[in-house]
Protein 1
Amino acid sequence: MAHESRTDTSFADALEEFKRRGSNLLVVGPPSDRARSAICRRLLGDASGRTRRRLFVETDGTASCLDDCDGAITPETTRLVTRPTPTRSAAATVDSSTTSTESPESTAGGVARRHVAERGLATLACAINEEIGVFTDRADELDPAELRLCFDSLTPLVAENDSVAVRRFLHTITGRVRSCRGMAHYHLAAGRRDDVVVELAPAFDAVVELRIDGDRPEQRWHVPDRDLHTDWLPL
């Protein structure tokens, strides 16, 4: 008879705690659409038999995670905040602290869409906070893990801002997610031991590594508060 290992039990306990009290996860590894879709489908949650409120934040414009969620897609359940990645020449000629253009909300494909043209992190944080507020206002009180946030890429933010500003931004967003016991994951195209990951990891509850082994996407979790490091697991 197979026995569940202590690591397996601790990992299951950690996941249950994340769902109960809210969590923020940093997802790292080399770019892979297949691995990315697999982890997003898992972390966005199963909508069968329950309501999910999903907020997508897109910053790199290369791929959308919207296709990775199941269940009903309506403005009441699915919202999207987009922010363009500036070209190097634009960044040199435009002061992001003074540009403040925002497109009005629109709805397409059942998704409430909001475009933030300003590149300042404070404006993006404000937009994310307000979108979460739309969900909390409509639901009165969200159930644990009802809110799921997918942040498609921290890479542009890291490239455009100093580490202090990025950490301040993350502190604001992760705190807002925890305040309503939501679950958020943030993609960063970097290795777990890269300097940028080591620097940002303390802002998160866990770091999730992705890889493709042969043709199979896999995940490996690191939960520092529990001194927990899993083996590579199938996605």
Note: Residues 88-101 have pLDDT under 50 and may be disordered.
Protein 2
Amino acid sequence: MKYIHYMTTPADPAAPADSSPAIAAFDLVLQFTVLMSEDLTQGLARHNLSESRVHLMWVLAAQGPSTQKSLAEAMHVSARNITGLVDGLVATGFVTREPHPGDRRATLVTMTEHGTETVKSLQDGQRDAAEQLFGPMPPDELTNFLKSMSGVLDRLRAALAAAEEGGNP
């Protein structure tokens, strides 16, 4: 699968007039992605967080107090990357480093009360956004949407996996 460098919109005069429904659907997904990315960036900025830092907080909220090694494994990043993320989260009061009770060489990254409250606020915001976007949909329309998007995501995952293995989807 090739990276998409730009998107066209229905209002774009350069967009081909004979676009297929597949192209129109793809353009809508790209528009949705851009808008969601902008919303995410703005929302995280209100909490003084980056996507990487909040990802670490989501993992920490799910796993509980964790070593940096286990966080790096869960996030599929290097230990150096985790150290920088944790340093930033410690400096801003979202997490602390605590002595590991069973391994004196290790430390546990632990969510602070501020971090826990922030994750809860982000979860509440996610539920509110989901309700705002999808709550008004009739149940059968939402069911069809879920089925369609699941299929699209399955195909995208397969294309990305094939590209990673050196195939050409």
Note: Helices lie at 21-46, 51-63, 68-75, 79-91, 113-134, 139-164.
Protein 3
Amino acid sequence: MTNVRIERSFRVSPERLFAAVTKQADLLKWWGPEGVHVPEHSLDLSGLGPWYSVMVNDAGERFKVSGHVTSYDPPCSVGFTWAWHDDADARGHESHVTFTIVETDDGAQLIVDHHELLDEESALNHRGGWQSTLNRLAAVLEENS
């Protein structure tokens, strides 16, 4: 199994960053890599329980991912399981994601830990996806600050 860690700093309070990464209204503004939108979802990480999202890219390809929020500690961290679905909607290998928020001198840092990915190829793909997704989060936070 392989793990990915990405750290990104934002010039917002830890409370604002935590809301952005857990509340549905905020999540829908940035969830998924650049170039996708989320037409179907139960995307809310602001409490324990199931979630899912369907991301659609510009070519019309659909990518479904689902999981359960397993830990919720505002404004410090939220953890959730993560599994992609295949074309028959069968859930694949399950990994685990944790968003940890740390206060900094000029705002807050988001640490994304994605654990138990199958292999290096999966880790590289997820790293790229998270980096692109965090670019979208940065843009949303900048326009709202």
Note: The CA atoms of residues 69 and 82 lie 9 Å apart.
Protein 4
Amino acid sequence: MKRLALAFTLSLLVPAASQAAVPASSVIGQAIDGFIRPAYGDLAERAASLEKSVEALCKAPSQAALDAARDGFALAVEGWSKVELITFGPIRENNRLERMLFWPDRKGIGLRQVQAALANEDPDAADAAKIAGKSVAMQGFGALEYVLFGTDSEKLAENEGTYRCTLGAVVAGNIAAISADVRDAWNDTNGFAAIWANPGPDNLTYRNGSEAVTELMGVFINGLEMVRDVRLRGFLGSRPEKDKPKQALYWRSQGTAASLAADLEGLGGLFRASQLADALSPEARWIAESIEIQLANGAEAVRSLDGPVEEVLTDSARRERLDYFGTVTSSLSNLFGVRLSGEFGLTAGFSSLDGD
């Protein structure tokens, strides 16, 4: 994925005489406290509940227990989807991002590794103390989805103490541990959050506020590109015969659409929390209003697209909603990458955000 490359200056070109410049440190602090920390806290709670539900399934197998574990998976995926577009900071340490979700996996590396572990009952893969040393494709949501929803997963409701369930519990525990570690790292008052929110000449990562805000803007610009070009277009073809339903993320668990909706909902939460709209002149506030409307419309368009991806793609009405989602993400890319960037002068100076 291309990394956002926008040049800022430190000039304070206030767009309206009545409007004060907004310190970049305030924008970043608001993003951290208003969205990032609470969202990672929510993810950690959901992941912990997922781990408990899989452990309960292993101890007392039943259809109800399997359903509960699958529901826990869906809730954890939703929590993850809301923060997964923030691809910097603590999630980048120790390969955590890839360990949480190895995707795209066009060559099916993760699937083959999980299937091999199940076939051979690999003891290391089902060992909580050793899983962190296994392939990243074995450690996160992709692997757990196959355990809970893949071929022969229905047997989890029948037999106690099976290798498959043990493997699932270990992977779920790994997801919970990583989620908790990232949450704690963001809450560390001397950790990455402090570095990002306090740019300056002595800061080796963010030498000024412009660099700090560039990181934030990259979440929106690069994130929308990834959602549209990798997630959506990875399975939605230009016409039905070019569709690739099994290239859709979470197709086994029928969570593809819910994840796409949560991606936009997460961007919406981050946008509101950062209060970037306050840095706009009154005449340009329409940009922020349009962003809010489009984010909500995009999420609503796909939120209720339940059922197998293949069925969604062959239903013309539901397929149109996926097409509309793609149109919305393109519109949002223009709003963030052209309109908002242009209003702030991102190629010549971030006019409403000072460098303090």
Note: The first strand starts at residue 22 and ends at 23.
